[in-house]
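Subgroup meeting minutes
Present: P.N., E.W., G.H.
Scribe: E.W.

1. P.N. recapped why we're keeping a running log of single-chain structure predictions: easier to compare across weeks, and new members can see raw inputs and outputs side by side.
2. G.H. added today's entry (404 aa).
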Amino acid sequence: MTIKALQAAEVDVCPINFNAKTPHSTSDSTIQNIEENLRFPINIIQINPDMIECFIKNGGNELLKNRYNIAYWAWELAEYPDNYLPYFSLFNEIWTPSNFCSRAISTRSLIPVLTFNHPVLQNHSTVEREDLNLPKDKFIVLSMFDFCSSSERKNIESTVEAFKRSLGNDPSAILVVKSSKGDLFPEEQAKLEQQLRTLKNAIHIKSIISRDHIDGLINSCNLFISLHRAEGFGLTLAEAMVAGKPVIATDYSGNRDFMHSGNSFPVQYKTIKVTADMPIYTTGNKWAEGTVNLWADPDIDTAASIITYIKNNQEYAKTIAEEGRQYVLSNLSPEHIGNMMKRRLTFITNNDYHLNQVNNDSKNLQLLKLEHQTLQSRVDYLERTIYSKLRKSIKKWFHPNKVR
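Output recorded in log:
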């Protein structure tokens, strides 16, 4: 999307592919002109902090040398973890997709943090309900998420419950849940399917489908809903809005950059603590002492009443949806976002930032520190393993029931 935005603003780009070997889908072939060698003095590196070490180990350090490096990061909580702080020194500035992300990251950053929303492409899909095996005459409520993005954060259970309380007994309505990568999270997927079985009017689409079919699925719905706990941006919400669909979503985090009561249907919430069994957002990261991680708990009854209201007042909902469509077309188009990026890149170039602010010694020192941390973690692991085996052997040898 960033490449499309820069191209729309007539900025020449040199796309370099990094194969992170993650479980996420990598079948998108939108960008064809992948290159092997850098041609420009500014890098925009769209790799989140959790993959930076992998990036460095696979030659990323060579891409960073003698260039002005911009990291494009997203984050879904209001607090930023300590163990990502060392990566700041590898870059000259940070871009994020929302003001929510920028606030979280800038509180820990000594380098500039700027917001550039994701550009949203218009939906030109010709895929129809029949192609997706969806009923022609039903009022379709659609929700979409990836298990790899944390089902707890996406909070799909609350979405299903809100539908159950509103249209669960309405034969003219149907809930469609589109998920992906559930096979990697069998317990969570089984829990969702068990909940969906309590409804007579629900469909679960689990297969990976093409971008064109995703757009067709969005076009086919009458209402899009996300009762998320936090979003770095909320891309599917913006994509539903540009398709002219009424959108219900938690009034919290990144989607507030483009959603308000005049162009969509925000849902009130209360803040709750992030549960301790969420390693991505709690125990898996090192936080500053005393940090309490919070995110949103949307009001299910409010969401249910809005679903019912939209079903019964579809013409009014369409007027709100049209306001949303126009907002996204004006403020999140590739041309608009691309020109904002272009102005920043021009400023960097005109002020010779790419020459004056590159501190190779600092970057090389940080790279060495990362390598040291990796080696130390391996040593610690080996020490623990050897100690554990030795302890078990001694315990077994001196066990009172041992026959000698």
